């Protein structure tokens, strides 16, 4: 019986399990595949093909090297955990992996993060979700339960340069997927249309619990779309939108969803251009929402004021589980500093007769180098160097 490696799978016909033709080992199959695609075989892969864990992180495989690996893995029954992080797989290599997974039902964990997948890679991943092709479990990329129909629960696709078009495709994936619970899309240049599309997918999703969108470019428009999604979504418990160019205006728009949402527990929105006005809006939204389950709001870069502290105390009396992480209380001084004399006024009062030693050492440790206002003509260089050495 032949293992299908022909055009239907996108692979050449290299392996057949019949008695007429059979490669003696997986290593021979891999070497033949490397010859076909024109790459140098990875010796580590050959030595460890019978081990359950295969770690090929940072090996510089590229799309062609990934294709050779995929060909060899079609018939492999021992590897259950495959690590391929940081290999410049690109969208082309992702397609080869998806094709391989249609035949291989033994791989349960795989890591393909940080591989510059871009839009083509997003398309391939979406096809993998839609087609229900295996019982794959991706750790740092996704995780499945080994059932007849796979159930992916975790997907980490950070640092893959998806941009807006891929964001639209991933939004469709979110809208249709019924198993994914944890999704990391941080550092993927998701802005404008991509941000809105992802938010629309979140609106229709009924199973995602943790969503990381940090270090993208959602902006106020994306915050508005997320707020609309939170009005409907009743499953999401943690949302990270740190560093997304969201200001007070966008925060207020997001709060419209927080005022009615009954599932979100953790909101991370730090490293955005938000002031105390935005922080007050966030706490007020929790106060207005009788069914809010919020436990943590992170605005760690925001300096608040006494009015915010009073509001937070009132809200925490009603909701003692709420923890708001902020940067500090602005405008307060913990210790009164000793008033130092104004050196420029002192120079102006005493005039040009002020000597160098007084200028350099007389202001409680404050060193002045205002040579244009001071007469150093009577000071030898040796004396000046000595004085400078004393105050270092």
Automatic annotation (TrEMBL):
Gene3D superfamilies: Ribonuclease Inhibitor. Transmembrane segments: none annotated. Coiled coil: none annotated. It comes from the Eukaryota. Pfam families: LRR_6. This is Leucine rich repeat containing 74A. It comes from Varanus komodoensis.
């Amino acid at each position: 019986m032949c293992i299908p490696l022909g055009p239907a799978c996108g692979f050449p016909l290299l392996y057949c399990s019949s008695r007429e033709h059979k490669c003696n080992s997986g290593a021979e199959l891999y070497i033949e595949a490397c010859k076909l695609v024109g790459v140098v075989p990875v010796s580590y892969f050959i030595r460890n093909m019978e081990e359950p864990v295969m770690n090929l992180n940072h090996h510089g495989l590229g799309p062609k090297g990934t294709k050779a690996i995929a060909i060899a893995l079609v018939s492999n029954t021992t590897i259950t955990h495959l690590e391929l992080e940081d290999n410049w797989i690109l969208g082309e290599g992702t397609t080869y992996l998806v094709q391989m997974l249609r035949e291989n039902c033994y791989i349960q964990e795989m890591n393909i993060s940080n591989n510059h997948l871009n839009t083509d890679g997003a398309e391939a991943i979406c096809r993998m979700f839609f087609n229900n092709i295996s019982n794959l479990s991706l750790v740092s990329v996704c995780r499945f339960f080994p059932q007849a129909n796979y159930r992916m629960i975790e997907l980490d696709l950070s640092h893959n340069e998806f941009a807006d078009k891929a964001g639209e495709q991933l939004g469709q994936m979110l809208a249709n997927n019924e198993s994914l619970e944890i999704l990391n899309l941080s550092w993927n240049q998701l802005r404008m249309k991509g941000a809105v599309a992802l938010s629309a997918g979140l609106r229709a999703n009924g199973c995602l619990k943790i969503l990381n969108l940090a270090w993208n470019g959602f902006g106020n428009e994306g915050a508005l779309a997320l707020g609309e999604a939170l009005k409907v979504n009743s499953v999401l418990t943690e949302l990270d939108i740190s560093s997304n160019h969201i200001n007070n205006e966008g925060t207020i728009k997001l709060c419209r969803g927080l005022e009615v949402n009954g599932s979100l527990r953790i909101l991370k929105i730090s490293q955005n251009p938000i002031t105390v006005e935005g922080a007050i809006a966030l706490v007020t939204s929790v106060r207005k929402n009788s069914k809010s389950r919020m436990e943590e709001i992170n605005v760690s870069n925001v300096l608040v004021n006494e009015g915010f502290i009073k509001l937070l105390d009132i809200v925490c009396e009603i909701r003692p589980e709420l923890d708001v992480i902020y940067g500090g209380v602005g405008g307060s001084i913990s210790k009164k500093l000793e008033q130092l004399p104004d050196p420029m006024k002192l120079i102006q009062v005493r005039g040009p007769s002020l000597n160098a030693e007084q200028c350099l050492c007389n202001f409680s440790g404050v060193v002045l180098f205002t040579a244009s206002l001071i007469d150093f003509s009577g000071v030898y260089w040796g004396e000046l160097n000595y004085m400078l050495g004393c105050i270092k």
